[in-house]
Specification:
InterPro entries: F420H2_quin_Rdtase, Split_barrel_FMN-bd
Structural class: alpha+beta
GO molecular function: oxidoreductase activity
Protein name: Nitroreductase family deazaflavin-dependent oxidoreductase
Radius of gyration: 13 Å
Order of helices and strands: HHEEEHEEHE
Number of domains: 1
């Protein structure tokens, strides 16, 4: 079972405001730049992200119903900053993977402990 939504709301109000500045440089993390579905407002959300060839994989640590996931799916893509590079993403799709085969080995253990089995997979453009 992913982490509770209440923890996500708490992180958004506090730690994420700091983490968003370092996440683009830390391996295994990045920042998704997306627009609100109704407001059109721009948002930056720190995430766990892994590149696999022409795809990026986001671990759904807080589940698949978070605002940023819904925004990216509704828009049909987003931009993610990983290791200081901006990647334009398209074709977002939710994937259930109980083996967690889309992420590196050591990360599988942490995600298994957290009960994370869902991922958002996007194609990297160009």
């Amino acid at each position: 079972m992913p982490l509770p939504q209440s923890m996500g709301r708490l992180n958004r109000a506090g730690p994420n405001r700091l983490i968003v500045h370092v996440a683009p440089w830390v391996p295994g993390f990045g920042v998704v730049h997306h627009r609100g579905r109704r407001s059109g407002r721009g948002y930056r959300t720190p995430v766990a992200v892994f590149r696999r060839g022409d795809e990026v994989v986001f671990a759904m640590v807080y589940g698949t119903r978070t605002d940023w996931v819904r925004n990216v799916r509704a828009a049909g893509g987003a931009t993610v900053t990983v290791r200081g590079h901006d990647l334009r993403l398209s074709g977002p799709r939710l994937v259930h993977d109980s083996r967690r085969s889309r992420v590196p080995g050591p990360v599988r253990l942490a995600l298994a402990a957290a009960g994370v089995e869902d991922f958002l997979v996007c194609d990297v453009e160009g």
